[in-house]
Design goal:
five-stranded antiparallel β-sheet, globular, binds 2-acetamido-2-deoxy-beta-D-glucopyranose, binds calcium ion
Length: 256
């Protein structure tokens, strides 16, 4: 990112110097072309870019497919049941069935910032997706899931929700990312029982941090299953859930 700024300001100086001369427009145009092509090269290296590289062998130099987004059906990438190893940044969820289905028998949430891991041979991955903001890696965000252990459909967001719409009274697990705590309520419009969840886990790599926390079921949070009706950003109750022991530092190796 620093490089982009340097390139930009150099180009602007050149443009300013040349602006009164004949041919200035040509020069200006070329300068901006240079900025644009440099920007593209740099954009590819955005330090907090979320990705998952899926390898079909244990060979770190082997071929891989890079995912940047959800894949509900790995047959689309020709990778059904064949991912052996992953290198990734972000909080990714792998499922043994298509569509993140509640029929999935095994789940794994690898969380890393620029880290790799071999998958257990028993995990035959058929769909995958990430938790957290679609924008920056550590933006404050919540994902509520219909099934326990982050399966099924989700209701997600980065702001207060006074109702969960069609997911009212249906959610069974949750992941939060980013530095803000979130409060989950059993009543509409931030009423009823409430529990607040802080992002007590941190993964760091290359000076980039990802904060997160999770509950694989609602009894972990002390709430009845299928009871959440609204969500607010911040901690708006004394009933604070801090989760299991915080996981700090390193390249991160949490499996949840
Ligand atoms: C996944 O869900 C979509 C949309 O609901 C559906 O069309 C598709 O058939 C499902 N795929 C599988 C393999 O169940
Ligand atoms: C991390 O940040 C520190 C202090 O800002 C800096 O000295 C160091 O070079 C950075 N490391 C990397 C890998 O960017
Ligand atoms: C909820 O998760 C906890 C562990 O986090 C587990 O001990 C408990 O059995 C789970 N309860 C249900 C109903 O799945
Ligand atoms: Ca449910």
């Amino acid at each position: 990112m620093v490089k982009i700024k340097q390139v930009c300001s150099q180009a602007l100086v050149i443009a300013g110097r040349e602006v009164n001369k004949m041919g200035a427009y040509v020069h200006l145009f070329l300068s901006f072309l240079a900025v644009i092509s440099n920007y593209n090269a740099q954009a590819f290296d955005i330090p907090d870019r979320r990705y998952l590289k899926a390898y079909i062998s244990d060979d770190p130099d082997g071929p891989y497919h890079e995912f940047l987004d959800y894949s509900p059906d790995l047959r689309d990438q020709g990778l059904d049941n064949s991912i052996k190893r992953v290198c990734l940044t972000g909080f990714w969820l792998l499922y043994s069935d298509y569509n993140y289905s509640e029929e999935s028998s095994e789940r794994l949430g690898p969380v890393h910032v620029n880290g790799c891991e071999a998958l257990p041979p028993s995990l035959s991955t058929s769909s995958l997706r990430y938790a957290g903001s679609p924008y920056h890696l550590d933006d404050s965000y919540y994902n509520l899931y219909e099934g326990i252990k982050y399966r099924g459909q989700e209701f997600r967001g980065n702001t207060n929700a006074d109702s969960l719409l069609e997911f009212d009274l249906r959610m069974s697990s949750v992941i939060i990312c980013g530095q803000s705590p979130w409060t989950f309520f059993t009543g509409l419009q931030f009423t009823g029982e409430a529990v607040c969840l802080y992002p007590t886990h941190i993964n760091t790599g290359n000076n980039i941090s990802l904060h997160w926390n999770f509950a694989q079921n609602m009894s972990q949070l002390g709430l009845p299953d299928n009871s959440i009706r609204s969500v607010a950003k911040g901690c708006l109750t004394d009933n604070v859930y801090r989760g299991d022991r915080p996981h700090q530092g390193g390249l991160g190796d949490a499996v949840v």
